[in-house]
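Input structure tokens:
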């Protein structure tokens, strides 16, 4: 009887924590929507990645508030935020840090680079050469940087949100497959609809001079400690074997699509699972349903497929292939 009571009490405490996490996530989204208009799905997916402990690649033409979104996210989370403007002459030491000789101490002292933050905005990531991209890859994969043979640990909530412009290709360095695979989600930003754009224009007009820095209009909602708690709750989300089999079927079927030369890797299945758990938490659920999985197939897998030359010539996109994949894969009942 005591054991049963303890289980009930523990369950009620966890349920209360989940409800609180869902409420905080809703507040986070509301704050971000105060300054970024018409991108509700992108904002939610960004929160999913944060809770799942993954990195995000934002792709969109200039002027869609990619930078503003990430800067505002740093504000509402009250976390250490840094921005790196990637350029062709950026060196690895510019982002990792450097060892400098301290004449007073008569020894080398490590000066941390901008990667030592909770949230890092990597602006125009495809404009820097492979050597600097490799340094970022180590940080994303290992949560550490290596300088002069010494490894330095990064923040436990270290998250990279990178941006790139899909239109301009001159002076860019395409991201290698290994680095693309380290991004949990790839989010495509599109133009807002007319009503959202009108709302944005009206809101910015009302801010006056403050419209130059709209990120200052958002308020703190949570902190790094809350984020760590959300990640723990997300990982405890229950997943039925039928849902696990559904994720597996999606990933394996992606390799059989005739338009695809290289399908999703086994790591993709783990990424999709973690993202679905995080989305379930945002929705206030303690279990993952096929609906969460379907919602995240495109952002989780679109950058992990390699199309065949014939498909590219025909103008078929990765999203087209993934939509076909979802339709042909049986949904568990």
């Amino acid at each position: 009887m005591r054991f049963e009571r303890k289980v009930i009490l523990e369950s009620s405490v966890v349920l209360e924590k989940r409800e609180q996490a869902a409420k905080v996530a809703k507040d986070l989204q509301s704050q971000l929507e105060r300054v970024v208009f018409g991108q509700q799905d992108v904002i939610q997916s960004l929160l999913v990645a944060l809770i799942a402990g993954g990195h995000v690649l934002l792709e969109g033409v200039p002027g869609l508030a990619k930078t503003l979104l990430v800067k505002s996210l740093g504000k509402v989370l009250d976390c250490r935020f840094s921005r790196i403007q990637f350029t062709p002459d950026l060196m690895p030491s510019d982002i990792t840090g450097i060892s400098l000789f301290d004449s007073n101490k008569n020894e080398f002292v490590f000066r941390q680079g901008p990667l030592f933050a909770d949230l890092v905005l990597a602006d125009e990531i495809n404009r820097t050469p492979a050597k600097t991209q490799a340094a970022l890859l180590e940080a994303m994969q290992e949560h550490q940087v290596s300088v002069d043979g010494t490894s330095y640990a990064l923040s436990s909530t270290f998250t990279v949100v990178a941006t790139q412009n899909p239109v301009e290709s001159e002076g860019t360095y395409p991201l290698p497959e290994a680095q693309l695979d380290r991004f949990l989600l790839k989010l495509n930003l599109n133009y807002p609809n007319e009503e959202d754009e009108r709302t944005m224009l009206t809101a910015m007009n009302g801010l006056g001079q403050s419209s130059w820095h709209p990120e200052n209009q958002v308020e703190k909602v949570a902190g790094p400690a809350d984020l760590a708690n959300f990640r723990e709750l997300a990982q405890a989300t229950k997943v039925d074997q039928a849902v696990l089999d559904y994720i597996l079927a999606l990933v394996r079927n992606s390799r059989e699509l005739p338009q695809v030369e290289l399908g999703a890797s086994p790591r993709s299945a783990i990424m999709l699972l973690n993202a679905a758990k995080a989305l379930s938490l945002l929705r206030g659920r303690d279990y993952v349903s096929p609906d969460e999985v379907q919602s995240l197939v495109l952002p989780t897998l679109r950058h992990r497929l390699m199309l065949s030359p014939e498909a590219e010539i025909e103008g078929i996109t990765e999203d087209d292939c993934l939509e076909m994949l979802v339709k042909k894969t049986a949904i568990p009942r």
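The domain at 237-328 is CATH 1.10.8.80 (Helicase, Ruva Protein; domain 3). DSSP finds 13 helices and eleven strands in the chain.
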